[in-house]
Amino acid sequence: MGLNNKYDVIVIGSGPSGFTAAIRAIQLGAKVAIVEKSLIGGTCLNCGCLPTKFLWQALKLKRKIQKSYEYGFKVNLEPIVFSNILIKKDKNIINLRKGMKAILSSYNVDIIEGVASFMDKNNLIVSNNEGNNILEIFSDRIIIASGTSPSIMKGIEFDGNRIINSTNALNLKEIPKSMLVVGGGAIGIEMATIFSGFGCHVTLAENKNCLLPNEDREVSEEIKRNLIKQGVDILISCSDALNDIDKYEKVLIVTGRMPNNDLKLERAGIKTIGKGFVETNEFCQTNVSNIYAVGDIAGRSLLAYTAQSEGAIAAENAVKMNSISINNFVIPQVVFSMPPSSSVKVSNFLRCKNVIYGKFPFTASGRAFIENERSGFVKCAVDKTNKKPLAFWIVGAHSDELINVASQIIKSDICHMSRESVFHPSFSESLFNAYEDAFDKCVELTKKNKDLKL
């Protein structure tokens, strides 16, 4: 084995966690290689977060144009050619991918194209897509960032044509006349929003008794109402949706994700848990001391931004051996419905005592009136004793951005929100108004008897 095959750190996968881990390790002085079996950027860039949000943004713009008459404009929207939107989406993704490659190149990260598998705890075999071995590489430390793939339901197989997953859906060349979306989580809601918004008759089926089963029920119900207004048929507590699939042109199954753990982990003695996620400690370290796992493959939250944080932490620990631990005390979550919804809370929220709630509807917001985005609300949970904000839930325009502000409010551990520090008129002042409402002090709401419950 030549010198060029030896690295200080090898990263398997170039999604948010792998990309971040590789760059941070280089910044710390390590010689680094990334092994990528598909496209730089992983699921998030190529068939997840970014393309989904592009289509959502296209839909949002379409709706803005259609409502422009409310500002005195006369605009006739030409018939939409969905394939043209996809072309623009793909161009954006290609440019973003080029940007990531340029960053990796600037740091002299070696990009090795192929499928990685373990020989032992320090050696990897890289194969091509045909399964032929093309390279053997050695490293003192290895960071697994191989991600996840759409889950397959028992008895159902994706054919990429009629029975499809989220990756297939993002590459449909035209909008189908009808679609059954199985799974009422974030991905299912986003797909139902996008395809119904572009003219597809969508039925969304969830086997639990509400959409977003782990979310605040008031938020869940608001999203459900908005989807129904947009023409989506909602089936709740539905366990037999697939018994009647013949009446749908497309059947999209988005019931979760499974780990990409086909790396011959057993050869290195790496333990897995649950459905095959790699077991790690608070330092992103596996049971094999020189091997780390980050992002979706570790199965913590399956979010791109927590994956990035884990990638940086794993690199620090792998290179400097300084045992930086994961800090997942406050994690915002967003669902790109129309309008979007978001939430953030302290990790121990369910154990909090003496909690009071405030709520501020966007119908009372001057900025919401100006932008004609009066749908939704901000809801806030506060510790009645020390007056610290514990959680925010938002449904409405810009909630995907507002939740970042809410996260920093909670993480800063402040015990008072002040009026003079919040610009007016703004959507973000609704966070302050919801907080004030928890103490019956909001001056922008009519006097009332509150009975807010989680």
Main attributes of the structure:
454 residues, alpha/beta, FAD/NAD(P)-binding domain, Enolase-like, domain 1, seven-stranded mixed beta sheet, five-stranded parallel beta sheet, 11 helices, 21 strands, globular
Structural commentary:
The structure is a single chain. The protein has 454 residues and is of the alpha/beta class. It has three domains: 3-150 and 258-320, 3-Layer(bba) Sandwich (FAD/NAD(P)-binding domain), CATH 3.50.50.60; 163-255, 3-Layer(bba) Sandwich (FAD/NAD(P)-binding domain), CATH 3.50.50; 333-437, Enolase-like, domain 1 (2-Layer Sandwich), CATH 3.30.390. The chain is built from eleven helices and 21 strands. The strands form five sheets. Strands 1, 2, 3, 4, 5, 6 and 16 form a seven-stranded mixed beta sheet that branches. The protein has a five-stranded parallel beta sheet with strand order 8-12-9-10-11. Strands 17-18-21-20-19 form a five-stranded antiparallel beta sheet, with helices on both faces. Strand 14 and strand 15 (277-278) form a beta hairpin. The radius of gyration is 24 Å and the shape is globular. The termini are far apart.
